[in-house]
Specification:
Layout: H1 2-11, E1 28-32, E2 40-45, H2 56-64, E3 67-70, H3 79-85, H4 101-115, H5 127-134, H6 146-156, E4 160-163, H7 167-176, H8 179-191, H9 195-209, H10 213-220, H11 226-230, H12 232-253, E5 256-261, H13 271-277, E6 281-285
Parallel strand pairs: 2-5, 3-4, 3-5
Antiparallel strand pairs: 1-2, 1-6
Helix pairs in contact: 5-8
Length: 286
């Protein structure tokens, strides 16, 4: 169970949804102007990959900055314990309450086959967390993360690592999204034995490798999950909006390197456009 929980810091963040907006195909963007004494940078990450090597542009940006800010403060030693304490559904709900007997048997067989534990071991989990556990099955390689690679350099440079939101803020989203929607998405994946999910993730990794934001946008605009169709404000837009004031504070105090999921960069309500709306110059680094 400990290994599974540690992976949540990666898979929980691996959500992609975009809105129409023309952007250059770049993952690293420079933030300047509007009174900033030195430039900051924002880098779009993918949270699970086979190779999280950083290119020279990213390394140079890290050298020019003195603070690393990720979505979460991922070097906080209490993070895993905090995640565990926030995984259960509210009001003592049980996953049995959300499934028919046949669905329960199907999901039970799936968890035993894939995680080596009966569904009863996860009976009080918010359904999204079981979905998140399946993400580790999408790759046939040791999982790496760009967050981990960024943290390694920041730690080597003895720089502080902070977060744009708390674990509690992020996990509480999955109390606001109805558990019934979460379980429906999970069962679609389970009944397909993750076949379509794996294929989509392979495409996503290829697009990310090529910094092809347009392809990611086109792919995710057709996302059929209820979680993303009905709750994109909770999952993405509201979070982006809250982050901007924090990004401004960090950037004004010192040159900062921000690492966030690539989906947060894109769209009229994405981080790049929201920073521009505040008067900053945000340019692609290629």
């Amino acid at each position: 169970m400990k290994k599974t929980l540690s992976l949540f810091t990666l898979v929980l963040l691996s959500i992609f949804y975009t809105q129409a907006q023309d952007l250059e195909n770049a993952l690293l963007w420079k933030i300047s102007g509007n009174g900033l004494q030195e430039a900051s940078y924002v880098f779009g990450t993918i949270h699970m990959t086979c190779d999280a090597s950083l290119n020279d542009d990213v390394k140079n940006a890290l050298d020019k900055t003195s603070l690393l800010v990720l979505e979460l403060d991922m070097d906080d030693p209490s993070m895993n314990a905090t995640m565990m304490s926030n995984m259960a559904m509210k009001d003592n709900q049980n996953i049995k309450d959300l499934l028919s007997d046949e669905e329960y048997a199907t999901l039970d067989a799936f968890t035993q086959s894939n995680f080596g534990a009966p569904l009863a071991a996860f009976a009080t989990f918010k359904p999204f967390f079981i979905s998140a556990m399946t993400y580790t099955k999408f790759l046939d390689c040791p999982i790496q993360s760009y967050e981990g690679a960024l943290m390694a350099i920041a730690q080597e440079q003895k720089e502080e690592i902070l977060g744009l939101e708390t674990v509690e803020e992020q996990l509480n989203i999955f109390d606001e999204i109805p558990y019934t929607d979460q379980i429906k998405d999970l069962m679609v994946s389970v009944e397909d034995n993750l076949t379509e999910d794996k294929a989509k993730f392979q495409k996503l990794m290829e697009y990310y490798k090529n910094a092809d934001l347009s392809a990611i946008q086109e792919m995710t605009e057709t996302d059929e999950t209820l979680t993303m169709q009905k709750h994109k404000d909770l999952m993405l837009n509201n979070r982006n909006k809250k982050w901007i004031s924090k990004m401004e504070v960090f950037s004004k105090e010192q040159p900062t390197f921000f690492g966030v999921g690539a989906a947060h960069l894109i769209g009229e309500k994405g981080v790049i456009q929201l920073l521009r709306d505040q008067g900053y110059t945000v340019t692609a680094v290629k």
